[in-house]
Amino acid sequence: MAYSRVLLKLSGEALMGSKPYGIDPAIVQSIAQDVSKVVEKGTQLAIVVGGGNIFRGLKGSAAGMDRATADYVGMLATVMNAITLQDGLERAGVETRVQTAIEMQQIAEPYIRRRAIRHLEKGRVVVFGGGCGNPFFTTDTTSALRAAEINADVIFKATKVDGVYSKDPKEFTDAIKYETLSFQDVLSKEIGVMDSTAIALCKDNDIPIVVFNIFEPGNINKAVAGEKIGSRIANSR
Q1: For the chain, where are the alpha helices, taking DSSP H only?
Q2: How many CA atoms lie within 13 A of 194 on its CB side?
Q3: Nearest CA to 35 among 223, 209, 161?
Q4: Which of 40, 74, 144, 225 is spaced 20 to 30 Å from 61 by Cα?
Q5: What residues are paired with 48 via a beta bridge?
């Protein structure tokens, strides 16, 4: 495989499938089956999951909630998704650990960097819930932070579209797909792949990002194998 240790970023919306809210069990099982094939081949895999399918802090804040409070509620939503993913992965035969940035020891381990790396070395999937434990930071930023901490080779951002476009391809037929981009391009052109903090972290730590469609079975395996898929963002050489 092209990568030995990867971090997979799943949005909460990806877990909804075609549902308007919550979690689609069929999507969870499809992701679990793809992950199991990757792990079987020896790749170490960690996951950061969002919570937008249950609660999004920015929307709560826009509706009048205190921003920090809304973000904490969103972090709890990510833990619900993380535990659901753990269940799906273990039913697919993948040994899994959930670690949360906010301690809740009855249901998950607290995030400890060395313990997370040890789990990965033993072939377990580690799902990071609770964001980074602080309000005002997105799960995209958490992905970049955790990837740097565990020395991941790459971040896979699994989305509803098959890459990065100049504008929303569902609304604009003239949208252009980018095969490759530099981090500087993303920052200067304000391309909405991840928030600017996450992009800057990846740029400074030289962690490439591959964006692809999660709903096509086998795409995770293709990405780990290094096949040309979706869009790749990296430092200019």
Answers
A1: 25-40, 57-62, 67-91, 113-121, 139-149, 183-188, 196-205, 219-224
A2: 33
A3: 223
A4: 144
A5: 9, 128
